[in-house]
Amino acid sequence: MSDTLMPKHLESTYKMLKNAFPNGIGNDDYFPLMSLLYEYMSDRNLAEVISSITGKDIAITLNDIQKSVSVNLSSDEVIQNIRKKLLPYGFEEWTEEE
Q: Is 93 left (phi over 0), alpha (psi -120 to 50) or beta?
């Protein structure tokens, strides 16, 4: 999905993630990233952005989001590393958006 097809309310998230992960979201970052963003986004919105970047079906992504906070738990250290990766691309400002 291109920037122009992303709903307006998800554009900043999409751009932040595309900039932080220019080569796509790797397997090692996939679950920790969703776990980090889960606190700030609805499941549906998070799934829409992640599925558009990864190319995964939205239903699979929704299931993966639930796994990221229940079964496939990441350590605090791994989640903090993802946070550090997002900081140069406006993560702090993004968390303050409405």
A: alpha
When pLDDT is cut at 50, 70 and 90, the band that residue 1 belongs to is very low
Give me the number of domains the chain comprises. Answer: 1
User: Taking phi first (over 0 means left), then psi (-120 to 50 degrees means alpha), and beta for anything else, what does residue 27 get?
Assistant: alpha
User: CATH no. for residue 11?
Assistant: 1.10.150.430
DSSP-derived letter for residue 73 is: P
| N-to-C CA span, the chain | 23
Is the Cβ–Cβ distance between 45 and 10 less than 8 Å? yes
Residue 57 — φ and ψ, nearest 5°? Answer: -60, 140
Q: Dump pLDDT digits (tens) for 41-70.
A: 999 999 999 999 999 999 999 999 999 999
Range of the domain at 83: 3-95
